[in-house]
Amino acid sequence: MAVKVTRMELFRLARQGLLAERGRDLLSEKQSVLLMEFFSYAQAIGPLQKKIDWMFAGIYESMAKAEMAMGRTNFERASLTSTDRFGVDVETRTVMGVPVPRLRLARLSEAREIPYSLSGTSSSLDEAFTRLEEALTAVLSLAETEFVARRLAQELMKIKRRINALEHIIIPMIRSRVRFIEDRLSETERETFFRTKRIKAILERRETATSS
Description:
Layout: H1 7-70, H2 72-81, E1 86-95, E2 98-107, H3 123-211
Antiparallel strand pairs: 1-2
Helix pairs in contact: 1-2, 1-3
């Protein structure tokens, strides 16, 4: 690709280089902040998973106690007559400009607190269903945390590619063109200087010959 060898082109490229370096620096700053956010979410996944495992273990234990107290038939009947109580509300928020979802457990308006007939049931079953809401809230929190961590990781990869392109392709290319133009302009200035000097010497000799 031909490069214009002019002062205006040199100024334009120099300005372009400064903008590219500033863009690289801003992306590096954003990368650092996003890395901290990413590690914050990534480190929260393990403890959340352990909490959920512990919560569901308690729920299963309560259900096992309820089945023993009620008998399998009554337990299965209560399970079959239970209705859905919850839905999921999804909103969008941003983390450092990256759109991510916010997940919230929503109780259905028509749902009852205990979604089955209380007749012939065990308090252990009531306890299990009561604790289920808290467990489902934790599950949504884990899902949101994992999704945010994944989106931040994807954004970090995009930023890394942009920084690499600026650092290893665009900025070196601009600097190379700037050096080329500076060298050509310096060479042109030297040629002009020596040409002017020769012309001046010729004119001086002619003036000397004329006066003598």
